[in-house]
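INPUT
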Amino acid sequence: MFLGKVIGTVWSTKKDENLVGSKLLIIRQLDLDLKEKQSFVVAVDSVGAGEGEIVLVATGSSARQTNITRNKPVDAVVMAIVDKFDISLKKKLEAETNN
Amino acid sequence: MFLGKVIGTVWSTKKDENLVGSKLLIIRQLDLDLKEKQSFVVAVDSVGAGEGEIVLVATGSSARQTNITRNKPVDAVVMAIVDKFDISLKKKLEAETNN
Amino acid sequence: MFLGKVIGTVWSTKKDENLVGSKLLIIRQLDLDLKEKQSFVVAVDSVGAGEGEIVLVATGSSARQTNITRNKPVDAVVMAIVDKFDISLKKKLEAETNN
Amino acid sequence: MFLGKVIGTVWSTKKDENLVGSKLLIIRQLDLDLKEKQSFVVAVDSVGAGEGEIVLVATGSSARQTNITRNKPVDAVVMAIVDKFDISLKKKLEAETNN
Amino acid sequence: MFLGKVIGTVWSTKKDENLVGSKLLIIRQLDLDLKEKQSFVVAVDSVGAGEGEIVLVATGSSARQTNITRNKPVDAVVMAIVDKFDISLKKKLEAETNN
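OUTPUT
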């Protein structure tokens, strides 16, 4: 999964009939410092994520393994909202090698 | 899914027999400002998208989950035409950090 | 699918038994101006493509959806030979924004 | 599979119901000299990997082929802890071509 | 499939139970001139490839379509050893456009 932030929504009237009712979120990828990268995807929401929240996105066929996305033509799903992101080891290493 | 714009069509006579009748669109990837990026794919149309329209493209096995693409050797499908693309949060953030 | 040009062939004696008889083509990726990019893949031929021809390549599990590749360990297949590639819209836009 | 190092953990309360109990690790990709690259993924642990350990990560649908991840919306799994990583050939070649 | 060279081996004791007995090879990607690129993967061997040999690697779900990898959490397999790699067309084109 990749780490992302919900930054917007996509509206579509003319779409695959199986997608009616699915919420399409715009997710910007985050780096390890939680800064936004340039890349983004449009993903179906399966956990009620809101704008500004930090989430995990599963892609490919794995994106179809939720009750909301099963058998639908979607290749990205928000399947978790992140509470805490602990990279203490990273910070420890950086402190040791800092110069 | 990624955001793209329909910029053309591919014609092919000699192709997998299951693809007869499928419309093959050339889709250029868009960034968050809806500017065209260099990358593009050829995708099957499943929603009647026309040249110049902004669309969503699903890739991989998910591209075979529409009535038009099921069990066919295609790895990209246009499965939605975009009506509105709301990234107000992004703009808000940029305004705050603008210098 | 991506757009490519057949530029060569790979021969292999020691290979998965299901691949006996499959023709392995070297396909170089093309940009929108049909110029060759650096990236290339080795793909199974399912449509009788010859050297120099412009083709479409499907990748991933979709590459196994032809009669020639079904259930085989291949992740790229040539599934169409391109007759015509129409990006008139792109050219129109470029003419308008040319400076 | 790609080579990575476990550098942290992600906590999530609001997530797909099938993910309850799965441990989510932050894995940074390594190069051939075992130096950390910029890219990282969040992967489910299936082998009891701890922080600082060097592991292999399988992605895509292959990430769902363990007892812990089957049928779940996850696209990356830690499926092996690396004991030894032997690239003696690489070193030999570099010694020969060194100038 | 991509073209690669076997440059080493990975040993792992603690791994998914289905991987016991599978040989894990380190494969470095090659360009069209058979020069090694920076990128590499760890792939299961299904054809008895040895160090220094030039091989083809299939990735994703296609990597699970050999007798050795079926239903296992692996996303890359060596499924052919390359005997000959013919890109005469490429050389011809380069000769013509050389300046």
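end of record. Chain C has one domain: 2-97.
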